[in-house]
Predict the 3D structure of the following.
Amino acid sequence: MSQARSLPQSKETLLKSYTKRLKDDVKSILDNFTEILKCSKVEDESQVSCVTQVVQDQYECNVRAANIVRAGESLMKLVSDIKEFLILNDFPSVNESISERTTRLSNMQQHTDKQLMNLKEDIAITLYGLEEAFYSSPYH
């Protein structure tokens, strides 16, 4: 909670929004699941016919199941939003990653430069030998 206090107002509001979404979605899943279980009870006394009651219960269960799926999808979107928030607002980690990549690329550049210098020297030696052979040959 101390981390949330050090955050700017907009970030704190965003975190509160995430918390509210989480609570609402979990409550929706729980409430709809409870209502599906209530529908599964068989009632002997009813003012409507058995077939009508079955169809009504079926539709209610379908709607409740759709609500559970919607809440689950909302939770998955919430997880995605939280990950995005953490990635975009975790500056020390991002800076460390950039520093590591810069160091790695710098080392790779130095290694490549050394290889190019060695190749340049080898080519110069070979070229000198070829020129010497060419100019000392009778075909010149």
Q: What stands out?
A: The CA atoms of residues 74 and 129 lie 73 Å apart. The two ends are 86 Å apart (CA to CA). The chain has a mean pLDDT of 88.
